[in-house]
Amino acid sequence: MDNSQITQVKARKIFDSRGKEAIEIDVIASHVLGRSSSPSGASTGRWEVRSYPNGGVKEAIRFVEDVVSPKIVGIELDVKQIDLVLHEIDKSTDFSRLGGNTAYAISLATAIAGANSRGVPLFSYLSESNQSEVPYPLGNVIGGGMHARGGKTDIQEFLVLPTKSETFVSAAEANMGVHRKVANLLEKKGVDVSGRGDEGAWVVPLETEQALEILSEACSRVSDETGVKLRIGLDMAASTIWDEQEKVYIYQRDKRKIHEDGQIDFVIELANKFHLGYIEDPVHEESFEAFSEITAKTSNTLICGDDLFTTNVERIKRGIAEKAGNAVIIKPNQIGTLTDATQTAKISKQANYISVVSHRSGESCGSEISHLAVALTAPIIKLGILGGERMAKINELIRIEEILGEEAKMAKIGI
Ligand code: PGA
Ligand code: ZN
Fold this sequence. Notes:
The protein has helices at residues 56-72, 79-89, 100-118, 122-126, 168-188, 208-226, 260-273, 288-297, 313-321, 332-335, 338-350, 368-375, 388-404, and strands at residues 8-15, 21-29, 32-37, 133-134, 136-143, 157-164, 195-196, 202-203, 229-235, 242-243, 248-251, 256-258, 278-280, 302-305, 327-330, 354-358, 380-382, 409-410. The protein is of the alpha/beta class.
């Protein structure tokens, strides 16, 4: 690894895209700076590590200054080494002393400083192979759930996923076309568009199938216009509509309450009717069994675990053993360090799970996940379609595609 040693670590309070407090970390090695922050979720999984200690960002900053900084100043710019030290400092299983967001920001800032010290892009610094695969962008077009207010859909995210395109740029452009086309169709149908949610998706008072119909129509039109093959998808974030006491999924707008078996049937019915290419968290986060059943009963559809796996090595191992899902969300701050997130992605890949490196609803303005997706050879990156903090990541992938030049090839999604 690099010979540069960390000379200084700084922590400060900044804000994320929702205007919520976030931590920013500077890792300095001689004259090189690595600066990074961490996103935050709203529909977080039960098995994620804690984002911040009890005292929030303020306590995290104090902890970095008093405890972390003296331990890592003097160490080489080596992400794995730093991540080990972070685990030594905070031995809890849920990073409750340091906070996963703090740990991830330190881990990432170290990687950025390392890349800067060598004068190479972050993706090539982090990459363990010489593959030049570019991920497909998965973006949400209509959104409700925990990411929106007012009249909204029951399901958190109605998504578009390009599955065949020559370049990343054309895939991302097609997604933007779908976002625009949906707005036009909504207007024509006289649907009240209340605005956009946390991740830039349209917030509309539509029932599940109505939203899927409009999205389908927009996708097939944009597909015809651009030649980019598009599938539609859902993030059902089912834990957020699951009532643990009553053991039912509550669909307020659809005016339905559904038991676990009914939910499995409903998901399969939607997958068939709308030719869904991607379904995230179709059942609640403890339901490995129902996940397995849905995976077995669908084909040519990615069944992805977010709250189910929470980027946690042990949970993905269980998923693989039980054949629960065939895709996994990678959100590094769910687990706390780049090393842990990388391990989850590696194990998933060995088991032929599709990794989906993902943004969060409260994002930083950084673009590191774009580099991470390429470094991990994740076939998909989930990053929204509109909004400055989402566009930062899309535009960075356009630059990465340019850097890769002729080597660049679009990843294989397998559907
Ligand atoms: P988040 O949710 O609010 O936890 O970032 C996004 C998601 O469920 O994918
Ligand atoms: Zn999700």
